[in-house]
UniProtKB/TrEMBL annotation:
The chain crosses the membrane at residues 31-54, 144-166. Keywords: Membrane, Transmembrane, Transmembrane helix. This is Transmembrane protein. InterPro entries: MT1774/Rv1733c-like.
Length: 194
């Protein structure tokens, strides 16, 4: 049979224990660690609410963007041209498309080199001008997760940095106290009582 006990662990022993080797600085460090761990836990719902706010605002913007754009079919009126930009090859061709009862034309991008008469779907705004495709609403979820996670990681990193700085300071205080006590022992020459 195994027993299971819930204990306070190292922090609880430092905070509540009566060990004479545990100094006040150890107790202060444990209190600080407990407070910062609690703050990191409390930061989770704050980060989640930030993510929710970002999701709602981005999803609304993406819906409005999608409602203002319309998909039409473009027909190439000339053979396409290719241009090299870095490692990418971009193809363009002059094309026509119908929207709002009017014929529109312009140079648009194509995924491959088009021949005259080639067709492809494209997006236009309410004036019939070529625009980028609307962003998918699923992108709002990724952006919300990124913002929420970044906010929480920033809080946790700040807490970890504070823990590191304070721990280093308390280590110097502990070392100075030990040096002081060892010096007293050496001066008294009484090693047996310590």
């Amino acid at each position: 049979m195994e027993t299971f006990t819930i204990g306070l662990g190292c922090w609880g022993a430092r905070l509540l224990g009566r060990n004479p080797l545990v100094r006040n600085v150890d107790r202060m460090e444990s209190v600080m660690l407990a407070i910062l761990a609690t703050l990191c836990l409390l930061a989770l719902p704050i980060a989640a609410s930030m993510g929710t706010f970002v999701h709602d605002s981005r999803a609304r913007a993406y819906v409005e963007d999608a409602q203002s754009k319309h998909q039409v079919t473009a027909v190439a009126i000339e053979d396409g041209h290719g241009s090299i930009s870095g490692r990418k090859v971009a193809f363009t061709a002059r094309a026509t498309w119908r929207f709002g009862g009017r014929e529109h034309d312009g140079v648009i991008a194509w995924p491959t080199r088009p021949d005259k008469g080639a067709q492809q779907g494209m997006w236009v705004n309410s004036e019939g001008v070529s625009v980028r495709a609307p962003r998918p609403q699923a992108r709002a979820v990724g952006e919300a997760v990124l913002v929420g996670l970044s906010a929480w990681v920033a809080m946790a990193a700040a807490a970890a940095s504070l823990v590191y700085v304070v721990h280093r300071k308390f280590d110097r205080v502990r070392s100075a106290a030990w040096d002081r006590e060892l010096r007293l022992i050496r001066e008294k020459g009484n090693w047996g009582n310590r």
